[in-house]
Specification:
The structure holds 2 protein chains of 2 kinds. Chain A is mostly helical. Chain A is built from 13 helices and no strands. Chain A is globular, with a radius of gyration of 25 Å. By secondary structure, chain B is mostly helical. Chain B has one domain (58-291): MetI-like fold, CATH 1.10.3720. Helix content of chain B is 72%, strand content 0%. The longest helix of chain B has 33 residues, at 16-48. Classes of the chains: A mainly alpha, B mainly alpha. Chains A and B meet through helix 2, helix 4, helix 5, helix 6 and helix 9 of A and helix 1, helix 3, helix 4, helix 5 and helix 6 of B.
């Protein structure tokens, strides 16, 4: 090699100046250091559980679980008539998430079918990264959009829509989640063995029946895993709902009404001036623990489903 | 041999129309969200771009008058945050990736770490804020400082760094590792002099993506106590701070509607920064892909 052309292609593998002699001890130290780096993620996982459980247990020492789960009013900041019923927050979270899923599921799934089964490779190579852009926009930007653009636009169509409502942030959140659903569903569709596809076509099925009756059902566990992960994402989404959902812990399933989600509640307490160490302040850890448990459950379900898919496609 | 063409007997039995209609519905499902994105960006630019001038970049915000003041403290705060976040999360994340890919592939530790990472990747960002609050702000008594915020963001982006670095390490051919080991290089020498240089562009791409994630995060910063309104840029690890998304959040949730213009202008700056970072990431990735053989 004379160092000109091929060198420009392969700068990395060129042998460097004298490589220092290996020492057994040094190697061992490096390996331990690297293992320590990877150990950090275990520490973080334990740390999250510890912090949430410890702080929440201080809260539950004063407020019983019966109050927490048996009451439908959430007014921890009232001086008198304090209520600690989590249901309004759960309701706000579930309604906004449901709206988001109603957008993200059909759009994400159809987009995945289009990209994997119909789009030309060139079209796909442009559209896929374009869709991914939606997931890269910071949520604060979506929040601004929901509040200043979508809500006023919806108010033109739906009379009586409150300025802060569940519909607008739900819809915007759905759009944000589309690329997540579409790329995971596409992976699942891609994992369907070609033999099934060819079998259906050979039996005389058209392309559309093949997709709807063979490919999508075969990929179902993967698609379901994508949906579950998307639900978890919607439950944990914070800024969009904190900005546009109105921040009132109503116990209402009407999407035109304002609401407060679990995440938005945590933000509102954190940015306000509720003193540290008070019971009111500790509520955020109880709510945070609830949120963590819900998303963790979703993630675990999704993980199991995608493992099932992998086992199937290997068979 | 060229790949055989996909057998296309679309609509032979079910009729062409249902199939065509379906494809159009699918197309709509791709283009409608993109149209919404374009609408979003158009609106933000229309509302905010006129507000951006040199003073908007270089001045502190004003609480009274929406037409004066700017984002300087927030911009500097974001710079501090991502600088520190990169300094903490990249070495740890890349180190963990190297361990998982090059050293402990089948070790017990690696198995547990994999589960932990998969789990962490799905934890909502606000939960990281609560960890930061309990661990860095309180237990380690760092207070509501830049370093506490940066450590929180570091933990938040760690799964992203680890996963993308592993991806990059995996693209390095095993034959190269075997050649190095066969020549008598140790595991670390192989990693350091053969694998890492090859994987570097991929690792950098992942690093940039992780940093762009950190720049846009708001929720965890609210929890670990980034200040909503501050007049000065941070001057050290232990300074009070705000960040660009925090400043946008404060303007957006302000009861005075005039401040929405400022929020839009702030968003334009934020999006431009992200666009720039992602362009660099794409350039790096393209260079990287061309070099694979």
């Amino acid at each position: 090699m004379d160092g000109s052309a091929p060198d420009a292609v392969l700068p990395a593998v060129r042998p460097r100046a004298p490589v220092p002699r290996a020492s057994g001890v040094g190697e061992r130290v490096i390996e331990l250091g690297l293992a320590a780096c990877s150990f950090v993620s275990i520490v973080v996982t334990i740390g999250i559980v510890l912090v949430l459980v410890l702080e929440a247990s201080r809260f539950f020492a004063e407020v019983s679980l019966a109050q927490f789960f048996g009451d439908t009013e959430w007014t921890p900041l009232f001086r008198d008539n304090q209520h600690f019923g989590i249901w309004p927050l759960i309701m706000g979270t579930l309604v906004t998430s449901a709206i988001a899923m109603a957008v993200a599921l059909p759009f994400g799934l159809l987009a995945a079918i289009y990209l994997s089964e119909y789009a030309m490779p060139r079209t796909r190579s442009i559209l896929k990264p374009a869709l991914e852009l939606l997931a890269g926009v910071p949520t604060i930007v979506y929040g601004y959009f929901a509040l200043t653009v979508v809500t006023p636009a919806l108010q033109q169509v739906i009379p009586g829509l409150a300025g802060g409502n569940m519909l607008s942030p739900g819809l915007v959140m759905g759009i944000m989640i589309i690329p997540m659903v579409s790329s995971l569903a596409e992976d699942a569709i891609y994992a369907v063995p070609d033999s099934l596809r060819e079998g259906a076509l050979a039996l005389g099925a058209g392309k559309l029946p093949t997709i709807l009756r063979v490919i999508v059902p075969s990929a179902w566990s993967g698609i379901a895993a994508a949906m579950t992960l998307a639900v978890s994402r919607a439950i944990g989404e914070t800024m969009i709902v904190a900005i546009a959902a109105g921040n009132q812990a109503t116990f209402s399933a009407d999407p035109r009404e304002p609401a407060e989600t679990m995440t938005a509640y945590i933000v509102n307490i954190s940015k306000g001036d509720t003193p540290n160490g008070t019971l009111e302040y500790r509520t955020i850890f109880a709510v945070g623990l609830m949120l963590f448990v819900m998303t963790l459950a979703m993630n675990l379900i999704s993980y199991r489903m995608s493992r099932k898919l992998r086992a199937q496609s290997r068979a | 041999m060229a790949t055989p063409p996909r057998i296309d007997i679309s609509g032979r039995r079910e009729g062409v129309w249902s199939e065509r209609a379906f494809v159009w519905v699918c197309r709509l499902a791709v283009f409608l969200p993109l149209a919404v994105l374009a609408w979003l960006l158009g609106q933000v630019i229309a509302q905010g771009v006129a507000r951006i001038d040199l003073a908007f970049i270089l001045e502190a915000p004003s609480q009274l008058d929406a037409t004066t003041g700017g984002i300087w403290p927030a911009l500097m705060g974001s710079l501090w945050l991502i600088g520190l976040t990169a300094a903490v999360s990249l070495p740890i994340g890349v180190g963990a990736a190297i361990y998982l890919e090059e050293y402990g592939k089948r070790s017990k530790l690696a198995t547990v770490v994999e589960i932990a990472i998969a789990n962490l990747a799905g934890v909502p960002s606000i939960i990281y804020g609560m960890l930061g609050l309990g661990l860095f702000v309180r237990a380690m008594a760092l207070g509501e400082t830049v370093i506490a915020g940066a450590l929180t963001l570091s933990i938040l982006v760690l799964p992203v760094v680890i996963m993308s670095s592993r991806e990059a390490l995996r693209t390095v051919k095993d034959s190269l590792r075997e050649a190095a080991l066969g020549l008598g290089a140790t595991r670390w020498q192989t990693t350091r002099h053969v694998v890492l240089p090859m994987a570097l562009p991929g690792i950098l791409t992942g690093a940039i993506l992780a940093i762009s994630r950190a720049i846009g995060e708001t929720a965890p910063l609210v929890v670990v106590g980034a200040v909503a309104f501050i007049l000065y840029a941070p001057d050290g690890f232990d300074a009070e701070y705000t960040a660009l998304p925090m400043q946008i959040f404060q303007w957006t949730s302000s009861p005075k509607r005039d401040f929405l213009t400022n929020a839009a202008a702030g968003i334009v700056v934020l999006m431009l920064t992200l666009f720039l970072l992602n362009s660099i990431a794409i350039l790096l990735r393209n260079r990287f892909q061309k070099r694979m053989y």
